[in-house]
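Question: Hello, beginner here. Any chance you could explain the protein record under this note? Any guidance would be welcome.
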Amino acid sequence: MDYSLVIAAAQAAGPCPPGDVAAWGRTVQELTVELHVIAQQAAQDVARLENAKTFVAFLEKVEIEDSSRRGKLTLRTPSGDAEHIRTEQQDTDRGRRLIARAESLVGRWVLVYRYNETMASNQQLKVRMLAHLMDLGDGDMSVNTAKKVLLDDAGGVVARAQAAWAAAGLPEAGTVTVEELQRARLGLQAGS
């Protein structure tokens, strides 16, 4: 028995009212059980993080998949490649929290903690799952990464991407800001 949970529960319950030891004891017991469950969930989350792979990426967008109700993040690695990673279902507390956190970090560089989960529908396949995101800021991205994003937006049509890039007045080397890239993306959409 972990008596530290009982002590924490007793502190959370507050002082025992005179003559009401039985009710206070039940409250402490209920709080102890709740704290135990929370501790188990936290231990699972920590274990997931300790075993997670990490990588740095630009968080481009967050969508909710219709079929699974999972959050689907579109990330760009520094090389410009698109990566997709999923959260738990939107109707779970953990899923809701991860989706909300991801939505708050769209347009920023993040450190992604990911793990692989076996698909329920096919035990042979694994899906990349999000364990945690850490905000790294809204720094600039390399021109090559930005060009790859724009080329993907243009459906792989190089001429469209080049025209949108030039119309936005973006440089051929160095870095661009998220806002500059967004201007080119909006120009691409307007030209569609």
Q: What stands out?
A: The beta strands are 53-64, 70-76, 82-89, 109-118, 126-137, 141-142, 175-176. The first strand starts at residue 53 and ends at 64. Helices lie at 3-13, 21-51, 93-104, 143-153, 158-167, 178-190.
